[in-house]
Structure formats: structure tokens, C-alpha cells
Design a protein that fits this description.
- By secondary structure, the chain is an alpha+beta fold.
- The chain has 12 helices and 8 strands.
- A 5-stranded mixed beta sheet has the order 5-6-8-4-7. The chain has a 3-stranded antiparallel beta sheet with strand order 1-3-2.
- α6 crosses α12.
- The chain is globular.
- The protein starts with a strand and ends with a helix.
Length: 220
């Protein structure tokens, strides 16, 4: 495991040390000890932010974008804001969408017993089927959404240990899970956003290509 100081993380991200500390407090970056950051969590944050420093949308707006691109109305977003969001999506690239929509959830990664996968998959909104539909091979890993208030309980229940390289990814969100489940089953957009944040080159390319296609359909 590679470790970096807070100062090194700040330089890599192009932000202040105070902003790095804020990202640690928010669970976006993983601190293993005072003043020390897991380098992989820094790389993952860079992947989710994109090549440019786009300001992230709020969680409701991020989910609104997923809904609109998936053919749903995003009724939790006000009429004026929804109209503005539509205009933004019409002019947006896939890379910008990834950076803007990262506010939909906070991803935490874990390791645990291999037998955990099946049980855990049944307690999250799993996007793996959509990922497989995009041409990726099925794996034993789990990547899914959970209610933010339930994250710690689920991790404890399954004996999960924080590990940035672990096979279990839990994406904690404040959006009701029935809405998340509906959007996950509506098409590949949500899974594509998750894949586009990956450090794996093939997964990231697959996600970005799917988002580019979704944006093109939205403009038609």
C-alpha cells in the first residue's frame, strides 16, 4: 500500500491542505494515520473528478442527471433547475458528466471473506448486470449503492475491512434506494458513471463510451 502525506496529496490534487482534510472528513480520501493518506484514494478521487476541476453537483442534481439521461422525469428537482440541467446535459461531454455527477454518492471500498459477495449483493442496489450488458465480464466483486445511514452497519454485519484495493465497493447515498434501484434498472447510465470512475483503463473507457452514447441520445 502506497502512502502519501497530506501535503503531497494536496499537490497531486491541486488543492490546499485544508481541502484535503475536508475530503478526508467527508470520507472521500482515506487517512490511515494523522497526516498520512492512502495514495490509491487520491487516484480514485482524480478519476472521479475528471481531467478538469469541475464543481460537483449536489446529490439531488446528480441523481436528476442520471434520471434524465435514463428517460425519467427527476421529479425531485424543481422545474427551473430541471430545465437548466437539461441545457447543461445538451452541451456536456462524458468526462464532464463524470466530474459533475460524483456528488451522487460517496464510495467506500473494502475487503472481506470471499463468501461475503453473494450475501452482500442482496443488500445493495447492484449495478453489475448493467455493467455486464456493456460488455464487461462478470466478476466476484460487488459494487452497489446503500443508504448513507446504513453504511457502517452493513460493513460491520459482513465483517468488511476498509481497503482501497478491495473487491467490495459500497456507494453511500442520501437518495431513497427505491429511486436508485429504479434508475439502475432503467439502463446503463448509472453503471457507466461508476465504471468511468474506475482506475482500470478498460472499465473507464467502457463507462465513458456508454455515457457518450447516452448524451448523444439525449440530444436527439
Amino acid at each position: 500500500m502506497e502512502l502519501v502525506t497530506v501535503g503531497d496529496a494536496a499537490a497531486r490534487l491541486g488543492v490546499s491542505t485544508r481541502q484535503v482534510q475536508h475530503l478526508v472528513a467527508a470520507g472521500v480520501l482515506r487517512s490511515l494515520a494523522r497526516g498520512v493518506i492512502d495514495a490509491m484514494s487520491v487516484e480514485r478521487y482524480l478519476a472521479s473528478r475528471g481531467s478538469y476541476r469541475w464543481r460537483a453537483w449536489s446529490s439531488p442534481t446528480s441523481w436528476g442527471a442520471v434520471a434524465l439521461l435514463s428517460g425519467h422525469d427527476a421529479g425531485w428537482v424543481g422545474t427551473a433547475q430541471r430545465s437548466r440541467l437539461r441545457r447543461q446535459l445538451h452541451a456536456m461531454t462524458a468526462e464532464e458528466l463524470v466530474g459533475r455527477a460524483r456528488g451522487r454518492a460517496v464510495a467506500s471500498r473494502y475487503t472481506g471473506h470471499t463468501s461475503t459477495a453473494g450475501r452482500l449483493r442482496g443488500q445493495v442496489v447492484d449495478t453489475s448486470r448493467a455493467a455486464e450488458a456493456l460488455g464487461l465480464t462478470a466478476t466476484a466483486s460487488v459494487d452497489g449503492y446503500v443508504a448513507a445511514a446504513e453504511l457502517d452497519a452493513i460493513a460491520a454485519r459482513h465483517g468488511l475491512i476498509p481497503d482501497e484495493a478491495g473487491p467490495f465497493t459500497l456507494r453511500a447515498t442520501g437518495m431513497p434506494l427505491d429511486v436508485v434501484a429504479q434508475l439502475a434498472s432503467a439502463g446503463p447510465v448509472l453503471a457507466a458513471l461508476d465504471l468511468a470512475e474506475s482506475l482500470d483503463v478498460r472499465e473507464r473507457r467502457t463507462g465513458l463510451d456508454a455515457l457518450t452514447s447516452a448524451l448523444a441520445r439525449f440530444r436527439d
